[in-house]
Design brief:
Order of helices and strands: HEHEEEEEEEEEEEEEEEHE
CATH superfamily: Outer membrane protein transport protein (OMPP1/FadL/TodX)
CATH topology: Porin
CATH class: Mainly Beta
CATH architecture: Beta Barrel
Number of domains: 1
Strand order of the largest sheet: 2-3-4-5-6-7-8-11-12-13-14-15-16-17
Length: 412
């Protein structure tokens, strides 16, 4: 890797990490543990988030730990996005812009058929703000009623780190296992401001701290050279929740502890090389929230969730094609997600359309990915709110040669 590439990687990491501190969330993120994020590769996201059976020797694919065994060399990858979100409820609308570090990963090709990987990603995001007005009726004669403004807001989310190991016992079969650590901190504030004398403003603060351990099992099967099948299973994740309550009156503090679970998750995917230049992929994932006890916020704000995606990739040439635009890979996809969230008695659904392209460099060993995604979350009539989001994604994928010392000319 040349000096420019090394500097570019350092600047990208610093910029994404710095901007991630300003990330915003969803008006629905106050329900449950926030809006859950799928971990995937930048290539898979451009194809409708269909990564469960998407082999890729040039990218670490986090969706299925068994895919690590297909890497030809050790790799490092980082990705993030910038986004604009339009939020609407029956009374108002708002627009937010933010940037987010989406994933960072390292994979080591131990030997042929063996792979070891680590990745770090935001697992859920929480950032919301609701506001409403009302009138407090005084129970005492001679004391006037008081109009008030009440706000409820929160910020934070869950982070997940995973250590994965994959093994290919024979051609066409790979298995993998990942150990996951999930943690996070969410701050919630509820404030009442009165505009009448004799009333004191009140603020109630709730700090939630989460910690949990889990794992994922994955498998890849290739019945034919063109067809790849993949499946994953993640059991329920035990999650410890520590709450700290504080009040403005006397600065009193109350603490409590609760054991929670994140729902088990099942996934199945397939990819097929239908022609030398065309690859198609699809997947479905399902989470069983109905069997989870002690859900934060109560079971009325949860439902079983499913995620269905499909996409395609067109590769018109090779990395060294004479025509510049034939060196790119072009992708597009569609996705529908029935999230676990319930708002106003109806489930919150997500619909997205995505497109992407990648540019190979360093003799085709490394790759730079771009992606675009437009989606809608929720419905104004059914859920009391709706969000339309546009995301511009980027990902950088580097092979082991970037940290190897070059041989001098006389040693070639």
């Amino acid at each position: 890797m040349n000096l420019f590439s090394r500097n570019f990687l350092s600047l990208a990491v610093l910029a994404l990490m710095a901007s991630g501190a300003n990330a915003t969330g969803s008006i629905f993120s106050g329900l449950g543990v926030g809006v859950l994020e799928d971990v995937n590769s930048s290539r898979a996201i451009g194809m409708g988030n269909t990564g469960l059976a998407l082999e890729d020797s040039n990218t670490i694919n986090f969706a299925n730990p068994a895919l690590l065994s297909t890497l030809h060399r050790s790799r490092i990858t980082i990705g993030g996005y910038i986004s604009r979100q339009w939020m609407t409820d029956p009374n108002s609308s708002d627009t937010d812009d933010w940037a987010q570090l989406e994933y960072f990963g390292i994979a080591i090709a131990i030997k042929k058929g063996w792979g070891l990987g680590f990745h770090l990603t935001p697992y859920s995001r929480v950032e919301f703000k609701y506001a409403w007005t009302g009138t407090l009726v005084s129970p005492l004669p001679g004391v006037p009623n008081a109009d008030y403004l009440e706000t409820y807001q929160g910020i934070g989310g869950l982070t997940r780190a995973a250590l994965s190991l994959a093994w290919a016992p024979k051609p066409g079969l790979s298995v993998g296992i990942a150990g996951n650590l999930t943690w996070g901190d969410v701050q919630e504030y509820r404030t009442s401001v009165f505009n009448a004398p004799g009333y004191s403003d009140v603020q109630f603060t709730k700090s939630k701290q989460y910690l949990g351990y889990g794992g994922t099992i994955g498998i890849i099967v290739k019945p034919t050279p063109k067809l790849v099948l993949g499946a994953t299973f993640e059991p329920q994740v035990p999650l410890q929740l520590d709450r700290i309550f504080s009040y403005t009156s006397g600065d009193s503090i109350v603490t409590s502890q609760q054991d929670l679970q994140l729902a088990a998750r099942f996934g199945f995917g397939a990819s097929y090389q239908i022609a030398p230049k065309w690859l198609v992929a699809g997947q479905v994932a399902y989470s069983d929230w109905s069997s989870v006890e002690n859900l934060p916020g109560g079971s009325s704000t949860y439902r079983n969730s499913n995620n269905v995606g499909m996409g395609a990739e067109w590769t018109p040439g090779t990395w060294d094609s004479d025509a510049f635009f034939q060196r790119f890979q072009y992708r597009f996809g569609l996705r529908r997600e029935s999230t676990y969230l319930v708002s106003d008695g109806s489930g919150v659904d997500v619909y997205t359309a995505s497109a992407g392209l990648s540019y190979p460099f360093h003799q085709g060993v490394d790759r730079f990915d771009l992606g675009f995604e437009f989606g809608r979350r929720g419905n104004l009539d059914s859920n009391g709110g709706q969000e339309n989001t546009f995301k511009f994604r980027l990902g950088l994928n580097l092979g082991e040669s970037w940290f190897q010392r070059s041989k001098p000319p006389w040693a070639e």
